[in-house]
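Hey,

The postdoc asked me to send both predictions to you directly instead of through the lab channel. I've kept everything plain text so nothing gets mangled by the mail client. Protein one:
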Amino acid sequence: MDKTENYSGENPEVKISLEELITNTLENNGITLREGAAETLAALSERLIAANELINLTSVDTPEGVALLHFADSLTLLPYIKEGETLLDVGSGAGFPALPLAIAVQGLRVTALDATQKKVTFAADAAHTLGLRNFAALCGRAEELGSRQPYRERYDVVCARAVAKLNVLCELCMPFVRVGGRFIAMKSRAASEEITQARQALTETGGEIAENINLTLRGEGEELSRNIIIIQKVAPTPKIYPRRYAQITKNPL
């Protein structure tokens, strides 16, 4: 892809690079990157769009869409993670938010978990090509790995973006979180009803709502509502959780 191609969607005579598009999109949403990160994100964007033409990885397939819906959305988590922490991204798909977070925070040790092999393979190959030494990709089901070592109660932070309702997510994700760590649920709509429905799930799995942050993502001519729910792990998750996925969905906590 020619990096001088016009991505602005405005005057066709005005051409900006993919790196500039990403930087502008992030800055418009209050996100500032370390030096060199925008260049790496641009390379990831090119790789994702090219791969998506061959295999179905994501419905977001334009540079503008990737910049806003994969990069800016993923990096809204930056204020809530720290250098030196371990992070597990459950249901990561092709690596979001895992890959942008690994690119933005070099001291963060990131693992992307997904049950679809082609998406895990893309994320792992992309990380290798981009030289990310703080990234690993894992193929498996959360309800199976969450009861096993070395995964159970290992991670400082576990996140999930648009995977399931919060009561289901608590059972899938909280077993991975160490006591004292946190689970971050990324939601695309008002989350108050889901929080109310998840009260029992939170109690059963050792969690406590610490914060619910409402924010707006801004792109060209659009505004997208987002919620970031931060759940502190205050007690160990009982060994009976997680149950089989059929049980979780049929009789959610």
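Protein two:
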Amino acid sequence: MANEVLELEGINKFYTESLHVLKGIDLTVREGEFIALMGPSGSGKSTLLNILGCLDKPTNGGYFLGGQDVSSMSDSQLSSIRSRYLGFIFQQYNLLPQYTVVENIEVPLIYQGIRLDSSTKKRCEALAELVGLGHRLDHRPMQLSGGQQQRVAIARSLVNKPQLILADEPTGNLDSKTSLEIMVMLSRLNEMGKTIIMVTHENDIAGWARRIVRMRDGNIESDEANEPWPLPEGAPELPVHLLEGAA
């Protein structure tokens, strides 16, 4: 059986005495899983994702990430955990407009305090090539389409070799064709062993995941295995050697 990436034990989140957003959440995620986290507005899924991403703290309960209980860590400790263990993909891409493709991919390394040099640049260029942007290395976000910007975000999420990738509505701003391209890419990364938790409100996007967790009123309503959509005929392979070259 695959190793556990994270475990939640009785996670509660109160914002006020009367606003109980998460109500005793238990969840285990193992290496290589691809989970879609779903639920209506107000279900608690965004709060849960923020806790998983060490962007917020639970009121009580245990959150074990990589074997460490991070639920009561300080903000500076959580910042270190984020930079070392987690990769993020956002609906709004969150790229820095003044930076090139390669420079945006480098950003998590800066947060880790890693000195940027020719070897880190080569690694980031390999990740850009991995997501099909090897010909756009010096372009800035305004010179890229939405789909290309999300590809940069995917490459950025991989640069620190995370244990877990958290994707928040990764296709929310994209058209159907581009959404398909992004989901094929995430599926390929999952095939390569990357663990992914993705928040989405779209059933067709959730259908790419291998497990679907549905939330309602701060509780996990259901947690079921899913047979993911088959990759479309002719779907491109990811050049695995580039990911290995970026290690």
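Summary for protein two, as requested: The two ends are 25 Å apart (CA to CA).

Thanks,
C.
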